[in-house]
Amino acid sequence: MNLYKIVTIITLALLIINCGNNPEANKNLFAIQIKDAKKTYTPDDSFLVSIINKKNKSIDSVIFYFNSEKLISTKNHSKTTITLSNQKLGKRKLIAKVFLEGIVFEASHKVTLVSSTKPKLYTYIILETYPHDIEAYTQGLEFIQDTLYESTGLYKKSSLRKTEYKTGKVLQKITLADPYFGEGLTILNDKIYQLTWHEKIGFIYNLKTLKKTGIFVYDKSKEGWGLCNNGETIYKSDGTEKIWLLNSKTLAEESYIEIYTNTKKIKSVNELEWVEGKIYANIYEKDAIAIVNPENGAVEGVIDLKGLRDKVSQHPELNVLNGIAYKGEENILYITGKNWDKLFKIEVVSK
Q1: Whose CA is closest to 255, among 42, 68, 110?
Q2: Pair (200, 227) in one structural domain
Q3: Are 62 and 180 members of one domain?
């Protein structure tokens, strides 16, 4: 091999190493600049973005992304308008992939999207009160017609129950093995899906018999907390501001939304219920339910449930409000909590 070929090979190798595969070199060449940048944005906003070309390289084109979602491509890289409509809320990463002489460079900028509207405030009227097992550490609650299905937690005490809601009578009970801490449940296509807390595993049961028919695992979300479904997609909370979207056939966690008001994120999202096109989310250790837009995570309303816990028997094991069930009655919810001896039928009214 002659000297010219050797030098050419070495030069190409160094170019690839120093530019194409060196993240630090990529970062040093380009940066994203947002004109009149703000701390937070809403889906009603748009902003003007440009690429800072630190070494005045001749750019071929630029493609902008939010995380992995492509937004816009342009060859006019001086200024580009990014529109935020239809974007999910939360902490997003604006990524610019800069194409230059066959090499792709990358720059990024963090952007936080919050809701464009202030949540509406609601309160409640108690319509009826029913008995509830004071030993039930309630984690999930869901109706099928007049039958109430409940998941309970705590190690060595967790269970799946089929109950008669008006009397509190437990019609059937499946006890989980001691190493499992039961969490939320939902029912879809004659199957019950039940989460566990730290164990990263869920159980599948036959709705009619409560016989366990399978398991599923989750490895992207932090933990298992609450479940609900819209008839096609299963929604799962993990104790953070995220609600995960699960494929109802494979049960894979495919994406997530982040729960935000117009000012902040809502942490510790817990028990979930699907109500007329919205996700009703119990907030852990708060006497409140957030009404969430499932498309983008915006909190459209908050139901203030303060005082409800005071109406149950007070005892040392009494714990937080947790348990939302919807039976198809307009503006009516069924609410209980961990180790509460009552189930409340409430009407949700404007505050």
Answers
A1: 68
A2: yes
A3: no
Q: Say yes or no: 81 and 195 in one domain.
A: no
- Out of 86, 113, 140, pick the residue that ends a domain: 113
- Structure token pair of residue 287: 């006497």
Whether residue 57 is found in the same domain as residue 135: no
Note down the domain range covering 58. Answer: 22-113
- Name residue 349's beta-bridge partners: 123
β partners of residue 159? 152, 175
Closest by Cα among 187, 226, 223 to 205: 187
DSSP 8-state code for residue 263:
S
> Alpha carbon 84 to chain centroid distance?
20
3-state DSSP: the chain helix, strand, coil percent, rounded to 5?
10, 50, 40
pTM value is 0.88
Query: Domain check: are 89 and 200 in the same one?
Result: no
Rounded CA separation 341/321 (Å): 12
Overall number of domains in the chain:
2
Q: Which two tokens stand for residue 68?
A: 């992995």
Last residue within a domain, chosen from 113, 143, 167: 113
Q: Which value, to the nearest 10 degrees, does the dihedral of the CA atoms of residues 191, 216, 276, 262 take?
A: 170
Query: How many Cβ atoms are within 10 Å of 247's Cβ, its own excluded?
Result: 13
At 18 the three-state DSSP class reads: helix
Query: 132 and 105, same structural domain?
Result: no
Backbone angles phi, psi at 247, to 5 degrees: -65, 120
In a domain, 301, yes or no: yes
Among 194, 197, 159, 170, which residue's Cα sits nearest to residue 343?
Answer: 170
The pLDDT tens digits along the chain (351 residues) read 554 444 334 343 444 444 444 444 455 788 999 999 999 999 999 999 988 888 888 888 899 998 888 988 888 666 889 999 989 999 999 999 999 888 899 999 999 999 999 999 999 999 999 999 999 999 999 999 999 999 999 999 999 999 999 999 999 999 999 999 999 999 999 999 999 999 999 999 999 999 999 999 998 999 999 999 999 999 999 999 999 999 999 999 999 999 999 999 999 999 999 999 999 999 999 999 999 999 999 999 999 999 999 999 999 999 999 999 999 999 999 999 999 999 999 999 998
